[in-house]
Amino acid sequence: MSRAGRVAKDRSAFTRRAVLIGAAEAAVFGGIAVRLYHLQITQHGTYALLARQNSISERLVAPERGLITDRFGTILAGNEQHWRALFMQAMAPEPEAVLQNFFTLVNVSPDEQARIAQDLASRPGYIPVMLKDFLNWQDMAAIEVNTPNLPGVVVEVGASRVYPLGPQAAHMVGYVARPNRKEVAVNQVLSLPGMRVGRTGVEDSQDQALRGQPGFVQTETNVHGALVREVAHDAGTPGQTVALSIDAGLQQLAIQSLAGNTGAVVMLDATNGEILAMASTPGFDPGLFDKGVPSSVWNGWMADAKDPLQNKATAGLFAPGSTFKPTVALSAMKAGLLNGDTILTCTGSFTLGDHVFWCDNHVAHGSINMVTALQVSCDVFFYQVALMSGIDRMAAMASQLGLGVDLGADLPNVSPGLVPTLAWARARGIHWAQGSTVVQGIGQGYTQLTPLALATMIARVATGTAVGPHITRRIGGELQNGADQDDWPDLDVDDRYLAVLRQGLFEVVNTPQGTAYSSRLDLDGVQMAGKTGTAQVHNNSAAEKQKNFNDMTMAWENRPNALFVGYAPAANPRYAIAVVVEHGNFGAQSAAPIAKAMMTYAIQNDPAGRDLPLSVPLQSTTQTLPVTGT
Amino acid sequence: MILESSLSLRRPFRERSFGIAGKLLRINWLFMLCICLLAGVGYAALYSAAGGSPQPYAQGQIIRFAGMMAAVLCIAMVDIRIIAKISWPSYVLGILLLLVVMKFGHTGLGAKRWISVGGIELQPSELMKLFLAMALAAYFKRASPEMTGNILFVLPAVLAIMIPFGLILKEPNLGTAVITAAIGGVVMLAAGVRWWWFAIIVAIIAVSAPVLFDHLHAYQKARITTFLNPGSDPLGAGYNIIQSKIALGSGGFFGQGYLHGTQNQLNFLPEKQTDFVFTIIAEEFGYFGSMVVLALLFAIVTLAFYTAMTCNHVYGRLVALGIGTNFFLYCFVNLSMVMGLIPVGGVPLPLISYGGSALTAVMLGFGVLQSIHVHRDVEFGDGDDF
Description:
The structure holds two protein chains of two kinds. Chain A is α+β, with helices and mostly antiparallel strands. Chain A contains 23 helices and 21 strands.
């Protein structure tokens, strides 16, 4: 074979094999192209979703809790920004190691560490777990510097609840606290860090409106979980602003007027039942509950006989004393048993069987009518009226006036109080003696009422309208029902009887013989009407009765409670008030002056005549609001 | 044959003064265009891998490529017969380098693969593939069918494959070792060795695979097992495969847009600038971009085969085929790995991946390939024998 021939043969053999090899390689390229088509086109949807899940993480954020303001927009419960550290489990490859790093940087108590471990075990991944709330600057700096060692740890702005009026409005505004496990089990959203649940007061009763809807943050994170950018942000729906009918000025004045005494003051708009002030002393700092109440503080509250946590205005039960006399009078007049001209005689005491019931100070008032009996607060007169009227008639009138019944107030923990009836006594196996009816005439005995109920009673007497006390004026700017006098039914009592009563109440304050004359208003053309009350809380011994108990010599807790109920202006009632000073001795001495101060402020500033619809920023409005009526 | 003699390269002689200009014209410029285009794609991908910056990858790589481009042109000017003469010395040098790397090499990613020569990182196993193809081509360049049918003649060639294969396997670098053996096998097949011998060897390997598996390193075993079931350890060894497939699949037809691939830009892809560089292109330019790159890669392989088949001497044919196959195997292993078709092993995508040693080896091979193309018509005299 020639060299050329051999070369040609070799060549064709080579070409054949090279083509085969090349074809095999081309086939492989084709296979790759097909496989790529499968991945990139056919399965694109699946992988695009996976890519998105890789990089986009979503977490819920707590909505901002709604504000609670007074009727003029003064903030009673607001939010303050602070920093908190959250932990996104899903973003940390090794959660345990991250937590250990965090605990070495930031001081976290063992209790909290246990809570964190429990939260981590029980929460779904999209709900972050609170590591530490209220970070200080050292914590912030430590976390910032060590970010690479803390994948999944997020520092974010949180809102904590602040109460600018503090203890002064604590009971009615209430407070918030972290939801408990039972609540979280019912509503997962509550497990979001920053979510709070109202516990008492308006925070509790309007919790749904204040809470709002949670939002979410979608963030793009890199493989280390570090934030690259925020993709989407939905702040959720912040809670609505709840504007109370309260006037913060009146509220503060009420607290100041109580001047360290234990007691309660409730002032209503007599025409519609709006609560303008509701003070209870002593108070507590409601802001503590958001951060956690120190156990020493808590134990102090629990040991305090004056029970600072109780809202004495709605839950404190007091014998009404002489402030019950208007009810007794109305019940008898409505039954036709006496009228304004009926004369009864007071000899300083009243004997029923072998029991002697004394008039106040053992004074004999002589032959007097209803108006005078109210004016001088004659007990003997009302012993007789009570016997005429009977226990059930008095109870029926009491419930008409809002005493001993559920008032339907938009506040939690409102006690209806107690006004006894024969049926009530029978049900409890109590033998109802005539004497019990006698003392009912001066608001002693079984009767127990709240200051809120007393304020309601006097408002109804003043206006002849069966107003109900309520505190929520606007939610999200919307005026709530009950703000108008026409929203309330008329009282089923003849105006003539009410007129007699009002005359008596007027003379109590505005005549020199009246028990509250020293607390008459110093205003031109505006008078207050009212009734004092001094309620025994202690069974006086015979000796004490004999010397007509010199109260100041008694132990504090044995001294009688001082009460006052009233309204103003007497000619055209607008404001109604009830004051209880526990162990304040005489109503005229301790309670009536508080009513005078409150009424003076109310008449001068007329808060019930105006409010703000709250469509404007809150803080600025309180400053620019023109003060009228001064 | 005046025309032929005027084309002096056609003459059967040892004359080497062909003229630089004439040789430059004979270079396969289409091939050169393809590798430049791929290098451009690589620049874009590395620019994106750095989050939209020429630093630290793209700029260095393109400078290295330019340097190697000059080297390709220089080597292309060297007479193929000279290259043929240094085939075996190169092979011996390659073996020595492998031994050096074993004793003194840097440890990178748990394997001794690199040595540093004057500041340049070298991976002798990459060079060895070229040297092996050259040595085998030199060995078979005058082999008659009778000789290639004689097992005694073929055995030394098998030994020449087994020595570097063993050394590279011991580095350990399973991927490159297998590619090296495959290149040797393809060159022998093209040289005319009986095809059914290969069939027997493949059968033996298939049967002994489980036994071989036992002798693999732990990381190699892990790669194979996670390849077989990537979901078993999504954040561990299977992570690369899963994230890589997510990147490819999320690309769609036209991709997520340049510099907008979330898998790439947010660092979900490991080693994205080296072994997984293809995922950047696939994610950001979609199936369209993938196909363009695949077409360019295929064009390079095809043009290498074209050079092999248009070459008039056996040595050139076999070396060109070996170089083309080497390039093909790079692409095949890398792309299959990226798509989760074969176990992951440190094989870059040539001309696109970031890194010097693979680029150096591939471009040196292209230099030889162009020398073959330029000198496709020279005749080997007896003196050209080794």
